Amino acid sequence: MVTVRLTDDSKIGRLNITPKKEITRKDEETVSVKWAVLRLSDPNYFFVFNEEDREELLALDEKIVLLGCKETGKDISTVKELADELLPKKVKPKPKPKPKTKAKTPSKSKKE
């Protein structure tokens, strides 16, 4: 589920998004991916998508996807591009550096 709240510079102080759900600048609620995608261009909403939303986003109807692409205001046209735009970037873990091997110094044996 997508989290939504009002933006800090919203002209609205509080808003009922459903009869039982109300959002403010500090109080957030969860909404469906479809509901959020259709309102992406509204400057009063601040949406937070999670990786768990990927499956629902990729399963959206083609008409909803096209509307969502227009709502972003960017030059995207596929559901994959829309998902990449809305979902947080995947952080690849950096590989651990291999420990440096120390060169063995030949020990000098005393010969007498």
Main sheet attributes: strand count, strand direction, barrel closure: 3 strands, antiparallel
Coarse shape: elongated
Radius of gyration: 25 Å
The proportion of residues in beta strands is: 15-25%
**What distance lies between the first and last C-alpha atoms, to the nearest angstrom?**
82 Å
Report the helical percentage: 25-40%
- Class from secondary-structure proportions: alpha+beta
**SSE pattern:** EEEEHEHHH
- Count the E strands: 5
Total helices: the number is: 4
Which stretches are poorly predicted, pLDDT < 50 over at least 5 residues? Answer: none
Mean of all residue-level pLDDT scores? 84
Cross-sheet strand order for the largest sheet:
4-1-5
Number of domains: 1
Can you put this structure into words, describing what you see?
The protein contains 4 helices and 5 strands, in the order E-E-E-E-H-E-H-H-H. A hairpin with a 5-residue loop joins strand 2 and strand 3. It has one domain. It has a 3-stranded antiparallel β-sheet. The longest helix has 11 residues. It is an alpha+beta fold and 112 residues long. The termini are far apart.
Helix and strand layout, with pairings?
Layout lengths: L1 E5 L7 E3 L5 E3 L4 E3 L1 H5 L7 E4 L5 H5 L3 H11 L6 H8 L26
Antiparallel strand pairs: 1-4, 1-5, 2-3
Key features?
alpha+beta, 26% helix, elongated
Condensed summary:
The chain is 26% helix and 16% strand.
